[in-house]
Design goal:
The structure is a homodimer.
Chain A lengths: L8 E5 L3 H12 L3 E5 L13 E3 L6 H10 L2 E4 L6 H8 L8 H7 L2 H10 L7 E4 L2 H10 L4 E5 L9 E4 L2 H11 L4 E5 L5 E9 L5 E3 L3 E6 L2 E7 L5 H18 L3 E9 L5 E7 L9 H4 L4 H9 L11 E9 L6 H7 L3 E4 L10 E10 L8
Chain lengths: 363, 363
Amino acid sequence: MAGLTPGATIGILGGGQLGRMLAMAAARLGFATIIFDPDISAPAAQTASRHIAAPYTDLEALAQFAKACDVITYEFENIPLEAARHLSGLKPVHPPVAALESSQDRLVEKRFINSLGIATAPFFEINGAQDLQAALASAGGRGIVKTRRMGYDGKGQALVESPAAAAQAWDELGAHPLILEGFVDFALEISVIASRGADGSFRAYEPAMNRHGSGILRMSIVPAPLPGEVMADAVAMAQRIVTALGYVGVIGIEFFVTRDNALMVNEIAPRVHNSGHWTEAACAISQFEQHIRAVSGLPLGQTTRHSDCVMENLIGDDVEKVPGILLEGDAVLHLYGKAEARPGRKMGHVTRLFPRAGEVDPQ
Amino acid sequence: MAGLTPGATIGILGGGQLGRMLAMAAARLGFATIIFDPDISAPAAQTASRHIAAPYTDLEALAQFAKACDVITYEFENIPLEAARHLSGLKPVHPPVAALESSQDRLVEKRFINSLGIATAPFFEINGAQDLQAALASAGGRGIVKTRRMGYDGKGQALVESPAAAAQAWDELGAHPLILEGFVDFALEISVIASRGADGSFRAYEPAMNRHGSGILRMSIVPAPLPGEVMADAVAMAQRIVTALGYVGVIGIEFFVTRDNALMVNEIAPRVHNSGHWTEAACAISQFEQHIRAVSGLPLGQTTRHSDCVMENLIGDDVEKVPGILLEGDAVLHLYGKAEARPGRKMGHVTRLFPRAGEVDPQ
């Protein structure tokens, strides 16, 4: 495989914590990085070789960015499609713009998943207040109204369990295209962090069990308490999805697992994913390095792990736990360099390792 | 302990690969970094928040650097003492300037080590051609002439085994202050990567066995094939050394181990050390994070490891092995972002992990 050689430059659209960790992984493989993000205090700028601070709509700045890069990737899925399309005419963009397009619209995404014979929660297209009432009835009187676009971390969502609640949700969110998702009483949620190379090679990390609070990921736990066949099924579904997308890079796929161990895809993120942060501490090759390998045409790394682990997000005031975490002495801490700890803001994460044969004490 | 809080800025004198890895470790703990290095293409500049490119003798640039930093450290021991002293009057500098001073002169360093009751190779101060001939005779006709200052990676050294060779070594190196070290027929070399906090806390990683070629470290192997008592003795000596120095930070101490398992200190490096690069792959807390923790007044991390490992340096043309290493799929590769692979130049390193209970395969 003729991949990029050390010294090449990888462009990253988006300068949040995912871009920051991608930039460090790229540096470890000898690559330079350029972050494109309008925010002059983007966390990724601190660890990248260069930062272009311009709006995603600035075609001239995008062209300048493309000129300086050998390959371009992105760290979040709400990049304007026009920007991604413009860039893909100038330099290779991985993952493909088609993946971005599908993941930006919940309706398109779910139809795509179902088209592969993979289950999702039941869903209904909502184009008016009447649609919503009808859909709620079809869904058994209980469901979640979601904006089709630009939702993340539980934003743009409302649980509705009555016609009155549905009417209120319509008042609040009806200005946007919506869907109603039928409520799934799942036993647990897992995610598969998978990767596909330009040559069609495929690797997935072991699925992690995720715990959410207020719509935000709180913890990922590995191994998940599931039979091996269920985990293998989830990985096989991930492979079908990335193959159908002609995907290149790392993808995060969230699944609901029902009480009888059936799998439904909840959401796809065409990028490195919060529920894969544990790989940085428990695997030789992290999801960040894996993504850099994939988009730069290098062979994918192995996805084995040396330890069991629990990854915990540090959200908002959770940063106050940092002194205690540092005192633990063996917790793998990762902070994102964000100055202000606003409620709901992801400030960092910590992974606690449980090596399978115990650690070796040097003293 | 009242250490720095996230958002603080750590200044790093020297912008080579060690500075680069320190900058990434600092970023992971939420710190900003400023590299001070005259070389505009310093590898560390690519991963740091900022780079001041000025000579170490530029007092004004040093003052500007100090003003922007909360604490200052260094990544190589040949920083001019005047620069370190100037800075230490402006902001805290860790490790202490005294450690820098001792390590810059082989004669001073060995006398210091002996003063702690710790053995070194026999050594002789050489101030003239006659001194050298006399010392060679005292050393049994065999020894290594070394410049007292500025030697590293085998530079400024000559093995002498005859009066004629000694005369030639004098011709080549006599312009510099020299010592003669008696030749030690050691069984193996180990190094201890130790750390001391501002509060006197102490931690050391398990000693690694080192393999050199052409005077340059080639491999570090963990565990070293030595009895536990010998390793414990080496760690205890390291603790005596850092305590005597009032040291704060990570230190690398190389030991010769004789055939009857006696220990002699070969060399002290008051900084993170090449023979500790394995900790990045095999431990929860790497030597780089440990150093950042120490100099910023945070609690030291644990030094346990989850895996056995072998770290291999990639020197000069060794970078041609990179495609093969990437194909291995589970080797932890770290490249330094250096454009040109000159002979003897450290381009990167790779650590192969051997988890003690085997890895877990996700598929």
